[in-house]
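In response to a reviewer's request, we include the raw inputs and outputs for one of the modeled complexes. The two entities were modeled together in a single run.
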Amino acid sequence: MRILFLVAALVFAAAAQAQFRMPNFDINKMVDTVKNVGKAVKDIDEPEEIAIGRDVASRLLGAAPLVANPGMQRYVNNVGRWLAVQTERPDLPWQFGVLDSPNVNAFAVPGGTIFITRGLLERMRSEAELAGVLGHEIVHVLRKHHLKAIQKGAQSALAGDAAAAALRDRAGPARDKLIAFSTEMYSRGLDKSDELEADRLGVVIAARGGYDAYGLPAVLQTLQAMNAQDSALALMFKTHPAPAERLDTLSEKMQPVLDAYSSQPQLAERFLRQVKK
Amino acid sequence: MRILALLLFLPLVAAAEPATVIRAAELKQEPATDAATLATLPESTAVEALERKGGWTRVKASAGEGWVRMLSLRFGGATTAKPGASGLTQAFNVARTGTSGTQATTGVRGLDAEQIANAQPNPAELAKLEKFAADRDAATSFATQGKLSPASVAYPK
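The model returned the following structure tokens for the whole complex.
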């Protein structure tokens, strides 16, 4: 099986090379190419992660701009940054934005950019609920869920050397393709296991920040109560497990943590004050 | 002041949501395990959820009013989804339309799969996003104002 995979990889890498000529087939060179592409895509370091994230964030902002409410934007940044400080990556250039869209959704971009839609924010009732959702998104960044999906996908989306070129050269056409591919990933979603992990660890992060840990489950119940046919939910429901399954998993795996930190503040008043302005 | 406080709490209590008990649950007098049990609600009991406190939800059931474990409820009745009807949504809409009206300047508002897949870079908005970022110190004093104390909580295995 492994050999088959290697052969397939070799053929793929070979096909990707413009000067592919069977008679001059140089197995050593080919093995090097496979190694280089694999390495270039696998070893995305932190500055590169941040650079890719900026480009992807810019595109998502092309799909929906920020809500024109600086007070609200700063408020969400404060909540998010406070939570990020409680994690193993406290010094990423974290930034949080409320997107002006009625759709209900949130997005985590590699390198520390998190978006939440106005549609989701306006269905929340407290800062603890906001913290629960931001905690979930922060986990995607911490665990590099999207970055790994980009790495995996880039090798098939961009043939051979192009993937390496896209990372080396931040302005070329290969780069554009990489970013377009990475952005498109947000319309397809992550693995279910990544989403469920983000739920479990997101609850922990909200609790670390001093919030009532039931914020995320409360939001999931709100989503559950909405009409699943509502078009505002379409993409979120397509890219995430159903709220019922997420709640069951949290209840099964996280009940002790949830209960231990359930009497921490919800900060409903501060939330409503800031979000209504 | 009292009225203001009442108004602020309104969305928490006003929106009674239909819910169903998904596993048999004790109806408690207070939101606590050791509180008096008023009744046991069997699976599939229909209730109205009134408010949440930690892991407990206050409900109105035919057996009476009390608190059940939040995660023993499933929200959404058979017919009753009321999208956008919460108090906050209304307040939000009032705030939006009250200030500048609906700003129809940007054309594309949605964030559906197709719009994301075809999105073009927006460097002007990206610059704004960076401007709103909070540094560590600002976030820490924000937390202090909210009386949030960090807790040491381990990730689950």
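As requested, we also summarize the result in words. The beta strands of chain B are 17-21, 25-28, 37-41, 46-53, 56-61, 64-69, 73-75. Residues 6-14, 78-108 of chain B have pLDDT under 50 and may be disordered.
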